[in-house]
Amino acid sequence: MDYRCVETTFKRPACLLQFGMLGSMAVVMAYRAYLIIQKADHPPVEVEVESARGSGKWAICEHPDFRTLYGAGFGIMSGQWLGGSAVSGQSLAGQDGSKLSTQVIEFGGWKLSCAIVDLTSHPLQAYPGAFWLCSQAAVTWFLLETDKKWVRVAEHGPGHLAVQRLSMQRYGWDWGYDSNHSDVFATLPIIENPKGARHHQKHCHMTQFEKKRQDATLLLIVIDSPHVIVTTSLGILPQMTSLLGTLGGLMTVMGLIFTTVFVQKYPDSNVVATFRSRTLIGHQENGNPALPPQDDGKCPVPPVTYTSQQQLPNKVVTRARRQSGVPPIPVPPGIRHP
């Protein structure tokens, strides 16, 4: 796209068209770049759907007023959740076994003795699926790690059965040179049954921390979908990279518009046919063709070349001299030019 290649009669309109399109493109790109920088604190986001990697990290903790956790356990169901507290299949322990150990967690200003159930790399075997969290304590706090901090999702006493639905999402940033995402979980209570735990204790793989036994407290976590919505905020660098891609597309469109309005003046000439002729890679030749190819309207004819041992025919030389205005070579009397 170059207005200088247009013949003199139409050079001014071509110049106006070219610089008009370039100016419009520059204004659009500058405005887009301004918006990207101005809205750096409120960037656009990309939303994707990925497979769930796990079921979160949980803590079964003692109550700060009742400082004893007698036992804890969990069970991952092999079948599907059937509604309520009914789950098909068998209760399976985690891949690392069902043994749990206690550790101290700081939560709300207290240091609590808790059993950690890490299911971040344990997706369920069927969906909608479920898993059990069980405890033996006077009062149990069930904690869930979300966005790198602990939150309390339930507080129940012995014999209590609760069912909650777990939803999972991932939020993060993409800066172009690096990215960072955090898992965010949320629970929604479905069923509360203060006396329903006794019928489901068989699903727990309990680990006893104290000799004293207590009626179990059960929390059934239900997950409906194996997919997670991933929301990524875009930094300035990936937005600018996308803007450069838009620039390339605009340049292509402008080139198409220009070549559609200002076409080749001699599209069927020998020069154009020579320019458009092609060959297999490795068979190209240096220099200019000895004779321009003739275009019959179908495909350009390959140029005719002559080696150093060959001579151009006299007819070709004479015709070329006549077309160029050079006088013919003098010949003896009685001999005519071909």
Automatic annotation (TrEMBL):
The chain crosses the membrane at residues 16-34, 243-263. Residues 283-302 are annotated as: Disordered. It comes from the Eukaryota. Keywords: Membrane, Transmembrane, Transmembrane helix. This is FtsH protein. It comes from Symbiodinium pilosum.
